[in-house]
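Postdoc handover notes: sequence design on the structure in folder B. Input tokens:
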């Protein structure tokens, strides 16, 4: 078979609700020279049947079915299977604009020093209605990308990323330790070997809803992102990345030992805890303990009484009382 120009990489796990429109948005691309790798990671819903139905209609689809192994393993499997020199990521709940591939492949062809290109997003809710966001648009060129790293701003929306296959393989693909923030860690590692940017066009309709991974695992995701940033700083300073060979990140309290200096764990708590105060999953889960520890270490108490009220609305009265007691003791 001739080598396609693009390998589209989609991992699916119980994605039946949004899967059909996601697949159709790929099949309707103006740029048609691609293979479409769809890996079903042990779904228990109708996802396998949907994939088989579309694969029977379009020979560009390469269906892969296996037992559940998780997203990072799936992404690395897709990276290994890809035959094209360029990979276009796609998720099972988003919708690509019909000219997405054409616009991104043209950019990579015209800018050989860039290894990754994303785009701005049109954010939608589970029903396809506009979803308001307050975060800035993604950085356009590499200089702005590096600046965004230091300001902890958004870098690239993963499902609209297109990257050169060998560049990503050369840095070891996705690292298992950074589960739920594997893309952020990858962008930081790639930023030190290639240029990265985003097209200032909204080439994907990016779906946001409460049960998506970034909502359900907000604490683990943000802790991992903070550690990935610290690892990035170690590499930038010419030091060894202590996370490079890890299969799983250690508990936050063990980070001082991992990085070989004091204050790392406290920095991570100070970085993550304030960002969890609006997260239902974070406050009802392990993020609450991190917030209490952060406050016990002298963290900023501004607005924390509103968090008490929020915990009551979230149906966590015991935690609300505990937080109120911490705040009262420090008053």
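Designed sequence:
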């Amino acid at each position: 078979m001739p080598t396609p120009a693009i390998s589209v990489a989609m991992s699916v796990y119980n994605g039946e609700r949004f899967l059909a429109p996601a697949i159709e948005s790929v099949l309707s691309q103006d740029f048609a020279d691609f293979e479409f790798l769809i890996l079903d990671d042990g779904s228990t819903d109708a996802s396998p049947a949907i994939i088989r139905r579309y694969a029977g209609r379009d020979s560009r689809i390469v269906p892969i079915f296996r037992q559940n192994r998780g997203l990072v393993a799936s992404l690395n499997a897709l990276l290994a299977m890809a035959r094209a020199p360029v990979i276009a990521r796609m998720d099972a709940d988003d919708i690509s604009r019909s000219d997405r591939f054409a616009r991104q492949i043209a950019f990579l062809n015209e800018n050989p020093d860039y290894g990754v290109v994303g785009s701005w997003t049109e954010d939608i809710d589970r029903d396809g209605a506009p979803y308001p966001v307050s975060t800035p648009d993604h950085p356009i060129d590499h200089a702005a990308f590096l600046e965004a790293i230091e300001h902890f701003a958004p870098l690239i929306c993963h499902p609209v990323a297109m990257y050169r296959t060998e560049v990503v393989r050369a840095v070891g693909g996705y690292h298992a330790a950074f589960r739920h923030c594997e893309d952020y860690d990858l962008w930081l590692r790639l930023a030190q070997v290639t240029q990265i940017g985003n097209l200032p066009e909204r080439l994907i309709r990016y779906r946001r809803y409460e049960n998506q991974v970034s909502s359900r695992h907000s604490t683990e995701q943000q802790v991992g992102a903070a550690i990935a940033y610290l690892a990035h700083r170690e590499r930038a300073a010419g030091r060894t990345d202590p996370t490079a060979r890890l299969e799983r990140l250690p508990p936050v309290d063990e980070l001082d030992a991992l990085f070989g200096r004091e204050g790392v764990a406290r920095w991570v708590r100070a970085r993550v805890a304030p960002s969890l105060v609006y997260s239902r999953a974070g406050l009802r889960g392990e993020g609450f303990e991190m917030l209490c520890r952060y406050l016990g270490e002298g963290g900023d108490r501004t607005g924390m009484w509103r968090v008490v009220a929020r915990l009551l609305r979230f149906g966590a009265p015991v935690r609300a009382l505990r937080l109120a007691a911490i705040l009262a003791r420090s008053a």
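Context for whoever picks this up: Residues 218-236 form the longest helix (19 residues). Don't rerun without checking with the PI first.
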